[in-house]
Structures are given as structure tokens and as C-alpha cells.
């Protein structure tokens, strides 16, 4: 960019900086959300809750399906076959 463009866009620097920070936070949140080890740990805790009688079989099935979907996406992301944007 030219000097004049930079000077004209200077008032928008805080917005551009904030957008970058939000993008970085979102990327990190997605990385954590789709981390296979975190999903497996959640599956384990879910099974413990079922065995302890804290949740019903139906609640377990629904939550398990969601976690298995997340795990599938995580494994595809790791293999490079899915960018995670399609669902």
C-alpha cells in the first residue's frame, strides 16, 4: 500500500487490529474445540456420567453423536481432507 493509503486508513487501525485479534481467538477456540484428545476426554466423562446415573440413555446418545461428529471433523482436519468450514 502506498503512503497516502496508509495515512487515510490510519483512523481504522484499531478496527483492523481488533478484527485480527478476534480472528486469532476464533482460530484458537476452533483448534481446542476440535482437538481429538479433548473430544475423547469428553466422551470418557460422558460415559462416566451415564454410569453414575447423572444423565439418561437418550441424553447420552445425543451428546455422544455430537462428540463423535466433532471427532470425525477433527480427524479429517488432521488428515487435511476438510478445512472445517463445511458441515
Give a written overview of the molecule.
The chain has 87 residues and is mostly helical. The chain has 4 helices and no strands. The chain has helices at 3-9, 13-33, 36-51, 57-79. Helix 3 runs antiparallel to helix 4 (57-79). The longest helix is centred in the C-terminal third of the chain and has 23 residues, at 57-79. The two termini are 37 Å apart. 2% of the residues are buried.
Walk me through the topology.
Elements: H1 3-9, H2 13-33, H3 36-51, H4 57-79
Helix pairs in contact: 3-4
Shape call: elongated
Share of helix among residues?
A: over 70%
Please report which band the strand proportion falls in: under 5%, 5-15%, 15-25%, 25-35%, 35-45% or over 45%: under 5%
What number is the mean pLDDT?
87
- The tally of helices reads 4
Number of strands: 0
Order of helices and strands: HHHH
The biggest sheet amounts to: none
How far apart are the termini?
37 Å
- Structural classification: mainly alpha
Rounded to an integer, what's the Rg over CA atoms?
20 Å
Low-confidence stretches: none
Amino acid at each position: 500500500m502506498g503512503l497516502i493509503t496508509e495515512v487515510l486508513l490510519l483512523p481504522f487501525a484499531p478496527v483492523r487490529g481488533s478484527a485480527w485479534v478476534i480472528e486469532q481467538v476464533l482460530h484458537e477456540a476452533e483448534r481446542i474445540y476440535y482437538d481429538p484428545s479433548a473430544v475423547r476426554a469428553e466422551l470418557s466423562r460422558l460415559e462416566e456420567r451415564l454410569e453414575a446415573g447423572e444423565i439418561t440413555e437418550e441424553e447420552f446418545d445425543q451428546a455422544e453423536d455430537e462428540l463423535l461428529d466433532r471427532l470425525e471433523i477433527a480427524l479429517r482436519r488432521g488428515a487435511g481432507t476438510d478445512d472445517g468450514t463445511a458441515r
